[in-house]
């Protein structure tokens, strides 16, 4: 409840938002928070997530529940890229959640299995031994033997060292060349390139809680604490393979478990598994979208998009291939100069590419159980949401209804007459409606 009170106070201050999913607000009003703005603590999204984990007694990775079963917990973060005043701000929030959930799934994929490739190169240029009376090279006297050998072995590096001192290699005197050679021969270069990647089919991962945090004057972020368990996995498999997962002790009807406060729904994304009054497992999916215009048609478009997002969240819960590919390059150079003063340089770069793909899947029995609309407290624009549900019971009912309707449609076409068939050779076979023999 602490997070929710902070959220309400922040709404009044209109400078910072942070909300957790599926939590009812404290019995107070935004008006009570006005005048208490100084008490609103601006926390980072990471702090808010950590407070939630601490309250649950969870850490990232494997955790044990009180009943002895084990769950996997992962966190993810996504940045809201659109400016607050932009019309696409609401949808950018949704994109930020999708990125956060993908981030959490990526960590899951890496936990399951990761490949690592490392390439290391260490080049130490040792001073070449100089022997007395060595022959001259390029007409230079024998006491320049070290310089001569460096020229033969690494002429390009020597010239670069001279240029670094602002000298022309073709005009540098003996003293300058000797000094540059000493620097070169006492240098060490080290480079390491590491690549890592993972690929896994992530099934049964849901959002345990999502958060929206917008510090004053900064880009907002959506964070998610994602969770996986064998119970969730069995539900995901029931979508793609059929079967009924084991339920639990009956609770309230699912519709009564949906938050009534729209401000809580505003920061609720993804899928949550619940137990209905009969002890059956039910998936509840939350989708939301901003309206492209303030017109009634814009509102309808937003609802359609929100419903599509909720439906797609169920598909992603059933299974999504997550591929991550990371490259890390670390370069380090160290030079020991003549006066023993070291010059250290470090350069590193890091890139990450993450892809997720969920193939087409036929899912029966997804129904809408709630629609809502709410103004975002910072942008002032309307956000419209849809809450959908799915269960093995609703899927069976939908499939039974489909078979009944298909049979009725076949009869209307002509008592089950076969449909016309076109063959590859260009021929066609079709049969018309059969006449009623009792009528003639």
Secondary structure topology:
Elements: H1 2-13, H2 30-33, H3 45-56, E1 61-64, E2 70-79, H4 89-112, E3 115-124, H5 145-164, H6 174-185, E4 187-202, E5 205-213, E6 221-229, H7 230-241, H8 254-257, H9 262-266, E7 270-275, E8 281-290, H10 296-318, E9 320-336, E10 342-357, E11 367-375, E12 382-390, H11 392-414, E13 421-422, E14 428-429
Antiparallel strand pairs: 1-2, 2-6, 3-4, 4-9, 5-6, 7-8, 8-12, 9-10, 11-12, 13-14
Helix pairs in contact: 5-6
Give the end-to-end Cα distance, rounded to a whole number of Å. 77 Å
Into which percent range does the helicity of residues fall?
25-40%
Q: pLDDT below 50 for ≥5 consecutive residues: which ranges?
A: 1-39, 127-144
Question: How many H/I helical runs?
Answer: 11
Compute the number of strand runs: 14
> Oligomeric form of this entry?
single chain
Secondary structure class reads: alpha+beta
The largest pleated sheet is described as: 4 strands, antiparallel
| Rounded radius of gyration (Å) | 33 Å
Series of secondary-structure elements, N-terminal to C-terminal: HHHEEHEHHEEEHHHEEHEEEEHEE
Net shape: elongated
Order of strands side by side in the largest beta sheet? 1-2-6-5
Strand content is 25-35%
For the record, the count of structural domains works out to 3
Mean pLDDT: 78
